[in-house]
Design goal:
Chain B: Pfam families: zf-HC2. The complex is a heterodimer of chains A (183) and B (149). Chain A is mostly helical and 183 residues long. Helix content of chain A is 68%, strand content 0%. Classes of the chains: A mainly alpha (183), B mainly alpha (149).
Amino acid sequence: MSTTHPQESLLHRSRHGDADAFGALVRQHAGRAIGTASLMLGSYDDGLDASQEAFARAWRRIDSFRGTGSFYAWFAAILRNVCIDRIRRRKRRTHASLDEVHPIADHADGPAALADRSEQAERLWRAICELSPPHRDIIVLSHFQELSYRQIAELLEIPIGTVMSRLHAARKALRDKLAGGQA
Amino acid sequence: MSCETIQPLITGYLDGELSADQQTELDAHLAQCEQCRRDLEELRQLKDNLAGMSFREPGDEELDRYWQGVYNRLERGTGWVLLSIGAICLLSFGAFMLVERVVRDPDVAWIVKIGVTALIIGAVVLFVSLLRERLAVRKTDRYAKEIKR
C-alpha cells in the first residue's frame, strides 16, 4: 500500500496521540511484521496475533522512540521480544524441548505470508522454520527485518564479530538443509 | 589463517560489513583456497534467493481489519487500567472500613481482630511487593530499548 504521508510526519503525529497517524504506520509495516512473526512462531495465525500485540505495545511506548533512527528498526526489537515471550510461554505450558516449541510452519501457513509462492520460496520457508532458534532468529533479523550488524549486535547484546559468525553459521546450516533435501 | 577463522568473513563480505583489514585478509585467503571460494559462491546464491523472498502485502480490507485488531487491543488495555484503578480504590476503602469496624467493636473476639488485621496487612504487603517488582522490570524493560539505524 502506498503512503501519501512522510514517515517523520506520521511519527510526530503519533507521538502526539494521533491514532490515525499511527494506523497509517501500522499499514505501512504490517506485511513485513506479520511475515517475520510468522517465521519466528511457525504459524501465520500466531504471527498475525503477535504482530498486532507488538504494534499495540509500540503505540503505548511511542514516547520512548527518540526518532533518531528508523521506526521499523525500533519496532523490530519490540516484535522480536513479543515473539520470544510467546515461545517461552509455550515452553512453560508444554514443557517441550526448545526445538519442539518451534513447530514447522505447515503449507497453509507459510506460503500464505509470502508474495512469491514458488516452489523455491516454499522450500526456503520450510528450511528456515527447521533451523535452530538462534539461527532462525538471526536470519530473520538480517534478511527479513533488514537490520545491520550493528543493530543486531545492540538488540542481541553481543559483539559485532559474534553477529557475523552466528549469521555465517546460520546461512551454512540453511544451505546444507536445502542441499540435503531436508527442507 | 585457517579456513575456520576466515569463514565468517565471507558472510561479512557478502553483507558489505568488512573493514579494510578484514577485506585484505579475506582476499589473500580466497586467492589460495578453492573450498572457501566455493562457499562464497554458494552463500552468495543463498543470499540472492533470500533477497527474492518477500512477504505478501495485505490488501486494503485486510489492513482495515488488522488495524482494527490493534486498536481493539489498545482500547482493552485502557479498559484494564481503569478497571484496576477502580478495583484498587474500592478494595482499599472496603479494607479500611472493615479493619476500623472490627477493631473498634468490643463484641468482636480478639482472635478475629488479629485475623482480619493480618489478612489486610498481608494483602497490602503482597500488592506492594508485586508493584515494586513490576516497576523494577519496567526499568530494565527491553521493549523500551531503541536501536539506532
